[in-house]
Amino acid sequence: MGFNRSTMKYLLLILTLVLWVLQSCTKEKVTPVSPRNIEFQLYTNQDFSSETNTIRFSIFIKSGNTTVLDSALAPRLIKDIPTIANKIIIQKRVPASVTGELSAGFNYAIDNVGISWYKEKVLENEESKVISFSFK
What we know:
Elements: H1 5-24, E1 36-44, E2 54-63, E3 66-72, E4 76-77, E5 88-94, E6 102-110, E7 114-122, E8 128-135
Parallel strand pairs: 1-8
Antiparallel strand pairs: 1-5, 2-3, 2-4, 2-6, 6-7
C-alpha cells in the first residue's frame, strides 16, 4: 500500500502543523517572585521628657536611585517619641515587580537643628525584614 505524492504532501503538512502547535504550547518555567514585607519600628530607650523641639519622621524604601515608598509620619515633640513598650509599627509590602537589593529606613528632621537618617539593606532574597530604629 503506497502513498501518492499529494497524500505525502498532505501528511507532511499535518505533521508540521502538529509539531508547531506542540512546540508553541511549551511554556518556560518562571519562578514566581513574591512580594516582600518590611516592618518599620520606631521608639526610644532614652529619657527625652524635657525635649520640646518638634521632630518629623518619614519612612522610605529605595531601589537604587528610585524611591519606592516615601511616607511621612505626623510631626511630634521629641519628648513624645514612644518607648519600646509602645513603639510605632508600620508594615509595608513591596510589590513583587520591585526586584533587587533595597534600602529602607527613617529620615528625620528636628526643627532648628537639622536632618538625619537611619537605613538598612534589604537583600533580594529577604521576604521579610524588620527595621527597628531606636532614636537617640
